[in-house]
From TrEMBL:
The protein's name: DNA-binding response regulator
Residues found modified as 4-aspartylphosphate: D54
Domain HTH luxR-type: 150-215
Cited PANTHER family: TRANSCRIPTIONAL REGULATORY PROTEIN LNRK, TWO-COMPONENT RESPONSE REGULATOR
Keyword Translocase (UniProt): no
InterPro entries noted in UniProt: CheY-like_superfamily (IPR011006), NreC/VraR/RcsB-like_REC (IPR058245), Sig_transdc_resp-reg_C-effctor (IPR016032), Sig_transdc_resp-reg_receiver (IPR001789), Tscrpt_reg_LuxR_C (IPR000792), WalR-like (IPR039420)
All residue ranges annotated as the Response regulatory domain in the record: 3-119
MF GO annotations: DNA binding
PROSITE patterns for the chain: HTH_LUXR_1 (PS00622), HTH_LUXR_2 (PS50043), RESPONSE_REGULATORY (PS50110)
Amino acid sequence: MVKVLIADDQELIRQSLSIVLGADSEIEITDSVGDGTDVLKSLEKNVPDVILMDVRMPKMDGTVCTKEVKQKYPDVKIIILTTFDDDDFIYSALKYGASGYILKGVSMEGLKQAIMTVYHGGSMINPDIATKVVKLFSQMAQSDFAIKVDEKGSDELTKSEKIIIQCVGQGLSNKEIASKLYLSEGTVRNNLSRILSKLSLRDRTQLAIWAVQTGILLKNFGGY
C-alpha cells in the first residue's frame, strides 16, 4: 500500500484525486491539503510515501515546499503535478529533489503509474516536457548548480556502475534500466544505492545532473 498526500490549492482537484486514487486498492490517501505550509503540518502527523504537489499555491508554493520536505524527510518522494511547464518551475523542482514532473492532463492510469514508479525509486517526467528536462539538466550542469561528489568514490566506480549512471542520466526508470541491461529491478536498486553511497549523493536527480556535468553520458563503456 502506497501512502499518498495530495497538495493542491483547488478543492475540486483535491477531492477528485482523493476519490479516484483512494478507490485504488494499492493506494491510501493520508491527507489532502491546499498549501505548502499545510503539507509540512500534515507531515508532522503522518508521513506519506509520495506527495502529489501543485506548484502555484498560496503562502508556500510547491517548489519551496519540495525543498523543505526533502530537507526534513529525504525519503519522501515528490511528484510535481501542475498545469505549468515553465522552465523555472521545472528547474527548481528538480533542483530541490522532486522525483517527477507531470502535467495535469495526464490520465489517472498514467498518474498511478507515476506514483508507483517514483515509489519504487524511479523518476517520471511528462513526455511533453522531457526534452526540456534534458536541456535543463545540461544548463544546470554548466551553471553554478554544480554537483560535488566524493572523489575517492568516483574513482572506484566500476564499468557496470557507470553504465547504470548513463541510464539514469538518460531519464530511464529502474524498470527500464533492468530491461535494457537484462537485470532484475532489485539488482538495479541495489546498484543505485551503492552508487549514491560511493558518490555521497542524495538521489538519482543529483546523479543524473552529475552524469551530464562530467560527460559520462557521452562515453562508451561497451556492454554491461
